[in-house]
Structure formats: structure tokens, C-alpha cells
Design brief:
Elements: E1 4-6, H1 14-17, E2 24-25, E3 28-36, E4 47-52, E5 55-61, E6 66-74, H2 79-82, H3 86-96, H4 102-109, E7 117-119, E8 123-124, H5 127-132, E9 136-137, E10 140-142, H6 145-148, H7 157-175, H8 185-216, H9 221-239, E11 245-249
Parallel strand pairs: 1-10, 4-11
Antiparallel strand pairs: 2-8, 3-6, 3-7, 4-5, 5-6, 9-10
Helix pairs in contact: 7-8, 8-9
């Protein structure tokens, strides 16, 4: 019996075997880094989000001395070159946060250069593609970003991938007892069919939400407000962070 589960990420080659089109990319890039403070950092344990002129900066303390942060901004034509040089990543980040509060500028200036990473191709799976395709062909299927590339906008790509794994394992175990199936092929096909049916609407809605939020990223103030509301509502629903999130709109 041969089963292929394509977990090969946003540029999946297995996706084309099951009939999905290539993933598409947003015009936004993401920069991530870590800053170490010799003494206590000023952020306590809260998750902060800052928004200014289409630049979003989020930060989450790891412990009393280390802070993880991320920034999203519009992609520029030089970003693929910038992404290869961590010093340039830092320079472009300092440039992007002009006008942010001093403690944010300090955090970026003091970030660990080795920790910096720029993702210039943030990709998504077109939701309508998922509706028209079964994403399972014989004993070939997909899981994780290969199925539902989601970029970071909902912060749920990782957990959605784990959901895939749990549902797939359950479908396989439920079908493995199929009688009169010496090769196991019938059982595997039934399991993958069941998996595709169970995941279809879940990954469709996640991909739709990602598409809408990502597309709004560089649009009008009203849409940015709506996008922030969707993200915060989603995060609150998922992680019960009501009392932990501070969101700051900068003029
Ligand atoms: C900037 C950014 C921030 C994010 N932040 C969050 C977050 O806060 N929370 C969250 O839950 N998610 C987040 N995500 C999404 C999360 O990273 C992904 O959803 C998750 O990594 C998907 O896991 P995966 O195993 O499906 O794919 P990947 O992690 O992409 O792994 C795919 C693997 O397959 C390998 N591969 C590819 N092609 C082949 C091949 N032909 N042969 C062999 N191997 C191959 C690749 O090398 C890679 O190791 C973020 C994404 C981005 C871009």
C-alpha cells in the first residue's frame, strides 16, 4: 500500500497532483526578531499590537528579559535582496517604524541581528480553489500549509496543521479495519476521502478569513479597523486573551 500525504508547505508540488492551483502571494512582507534586555523589559506579560500607516508591529514577551516581535508592512521591490542580509533587515525595520514610541524603536535597535528574518513571499490558498477541489486523489492528499497556506494574519497556520494531523489519524484508524482488503488500498482511499470531507469547510473558512484579512492589509483606514477587529475577535475566541492584548493606534 502506498499513501502520499503532501506536507510540503506553501509551494507544494503534491498539491498539483490532487488538482489544486498554485498558492498566491500577498503584497505584504513579515519581519520577525527577538530582543534581549539586560534588565527587565517594560512589557510585563501582555501581547501588544501597534498600528501606524499600514505598518503593524506586534510583540510578545518570552520571559522577563526576552521579547519576541514581528512587523508586517508593504512589500517593496528590494525585499528579496534585503531578506538575504540581516543587517539590511534591521535597517529596513528601523525605517518602517519611524514615528513609533521610543521604547519600540529601542527594542528594534537592540534586537539580536542573528534572530532577524524577513519573509517576502507570504502566500495564501485561494478559498474558491478549495471549494472546487476534493484535495484527495486516490491515496494522495495534503496537510498543513500545502493544503491551506495562511500567512501569519490569523496566527493559526500551525494549529490548523495539527488539526489536519489529528483528523487524518482518526480517519485512518477508523477505516483500517475494512474487511476483505488485503492490500489496505480500499481502507486508505476511504480514510482519505473521509478526511477530505471532514476538513473541507474548516479549511475553506480559514482560508477565506486569511484572504480577506490579508487583502485588507494595505487598504483604507476603515478596512484596517475592520481587519483589526476580525483578528482580535478571532484571537480572543481562540486563546481567551481579552485581558492580555493591548492594541495601540498611533497617529
Ligand atoms: C511570517 C509568518 C509568521 C507566522 N506566524 C504564525 C503564528 O504566529 N502562528 C501560527 O500558528 N502560524 C504562523 N505561521 C504559519 C505557520 O508557519 C505555518 O502554518 C506552518 O509552518 C505550516 O507547517 P507545515 O509543516 O505545513 O509547512 P512548513 O513549515 O512550510 O514545512 C514544509 C516542509 O516541507 C519541506 N519541503 C518542501 N518541498 C519539499 C520537497 N519537494 N521535498 C521534501 N521536503 C519539502 C520544506 O523544506 C519544509 O521543511 C506564520 C507564517 C509566516 C510566513
Amino acid at each position: 500500500m502506498q499513501v502520499i500525504i503532501g506536507c510540503d508547505g506553501v509551494n507544494s508540488v503534491v498539491a498539483s497532483i490532487v488538482g489544486l492551483n498554485s498558492s498566491r502571494h500577498f503584497s505584504t512582507c513579515a519581519i520577525r526578531g527577538v530582543t534581549h534586555y539586560q534588565t527587565l523589559h517594560p512589557f510585563g506579560t501582555a501581547f501588544y499590537l501597534f498600528d501606524k500607516d499600514g505598518v503593524r508591529l506586534g510583540l510578545l514577551p518570552i520571559n522577563h528579559n526576552d521579547v519576541y516581535w514581528f512587523l508586517t508592512r508593504k512589500l517593496t521591490s528590494t525585499d528579496s535582496m534585503v531578506s538575504k542580509d540581516q543587517k539590511l533587515i534591521k535597517e529596513s525595520t528601523v525605517e518602517a517604524i519611524k514615528g513609533f514610541p521610543n521604547h519600540i524603536t529601542e527594542m528594534i535597535n537592540n534586537s539580536d541581528v542573528d534572530s532577524l528574518h524577513l519573509t517576502d513571499q507570504m502566500r495564501y490558498r485561494a478559498p474558491w480553489d478549495l471549494l472546487r477541489t476534493k484535495f484527495c486523489k486516490g491515496t494522495v492528499t495534503l496537510a498543513g500549509d500545502a493544503l491551506h497556506a495562511m500567512a501569519p494574519f490569523l496566527a493559526q497556520g500551525g494549529s490548523a496543521s495539527l488539526e489536519d494531523a489529528v483528523v487524518l489519524a482518526r480517519c485512518l484508524s477508523q477505516n483500517m479495519g475494512i474487511a476483505l482488503d488485503p492490500t489496505g488500498m480500499k481502507a486508505a482511499r476511504a480514510a482519505l476521502d473521509q478526511y477530505a470531507k471532514e476538513r473541507k469547510m474548516r479549511v475553506f473558512w480559514l482560508s477565506l478569513e486569511t484572504f480577506v484579512v490579508g487583502t485588507m492589509h494595505d487598504t483604507s483606514a476603515l478596512l484596517v479597523e475592520l481587519r483589526s477587529w476580525i483578528i482580535l475577535t478571532d484571537q480572543r475566541r481562540s486563546y481567551h486573551l481579552e485581558k492580555l492584548i493591548w492594541r495601540i493606534e498611533l497617529d
